[in-house]
Amino acid sequence: MALYLIGDVQGCDEALGRLLQRIDFSPSRDTLVLLGDLVNRGPASDDVLRRVQALGGAARSLLGNHDLHLLGVAHGARKSGRKDTLDGVLDAPDRDALIDWLRHQAMALHQTVGGRDLLMVHAGVLPQWSVAQTLVLAAEVEAVLRGPTLGEFVRTMYGNEPAQWDDALTDTARLRAIVNGLTRLRFCTAEGVMDFDTKDSADAPPAGFMPWFEVPRRRSANATVAFGHWSTLGWIDRPGLLSTDTGCVWGGCLSAARIGATLDDIEHLEVQCDQAQKPGA
């Protein structure tokens, strides 16, 4: 029995199928967590959703920014962009079932491995958030996504403000800050002010900012945080940090991490991907 984590698939179903074969994944034996952005930019988002859904309880997925974008488009709150490839889902005969399955996925997940915390998110964790608080805040958003006001929520979910977390935040501002931290974060200040413009590597932060995982005294630093989202960062496996987005949709690789008996025992497996999109605006 093994636990596997897979980085951003982004509609690359053929690569996902090959990777599952490469790791010899068995739904009756193994557990799979996809770290968000199942859909968009690649050629077969609908097939990705069907493949993961068919794995039943053996597979769970986090919601990434592209997954939330699909929910927004499906509920008329967003328009598809020039590079979006969501029509396969939006025009599918099983569209409603696919969208309903997606909205019930998680914003953050946690597992204890060898007595240590493994926290799984799509993008990052704000420095003020402990592991326990991250899970509580994720649950606040999950409750809305799964509830009757989803359509209203996705109309107010987007925006860069508030750019900094405050425990006193309420209502839409609070939920938006949680979503932005968990699904969009790359760089922030030591005080947790988020930057949403820079998508470069960790070596090129905006002035006054740093990668979220480099913030001193980050409250989640006692855990291993596994995430995707940042393709220019690539694969990183170091104490306390596991970065898994290796740019499948851009012609890189689709990566999986096999988690061993401890968080010091992580194996990197990957398959090469065909380029579905060219980087740049």
Key words describing this protein structure:
Purple Acid Phosphatase, chain A, domain 2, globular, alpha/beta, 281 residues, single chain, five-stranded mixed beta sheet
Describe the model.
It is globular, with a radius of gyration of 17 Å. A 5-stranded mixed β-sheet has the order 3-2-1-12-13. Strands 4-5-9-11-10 form a 5-stranded mixed β-sheet, with no helix packed on it. It has a 3-stranded antiparallel β-sheet with strand order 7-6-8, with no helix packed on it. The relative contact order is 0.18. It is an alpha/beta fold. The chain has helices spanning 13-22, 45-54, 65-74, 87-90, 95-103, 131-145, 150-156, 171-183, and strands at 3-6, 31-34, 59-61, 109-113, 116-120, 187-188, 194-195, 210-211, 224-227, 236-238, 241-243, 253-259, 266-272. The protein has one domain (3-272): Metallo-dependent phosphatases (Purple Acid Phosphatase, chain A, domain 2). Strand 2, helix 2 (45-54) and strand 3 (59-61) form a beta-alpha-beta unit. Helices cover 28% and strands 18% of the residues. Helix 2 packs across helix 5 and helix 6 (131-145) packs across helix 8 (171-183).
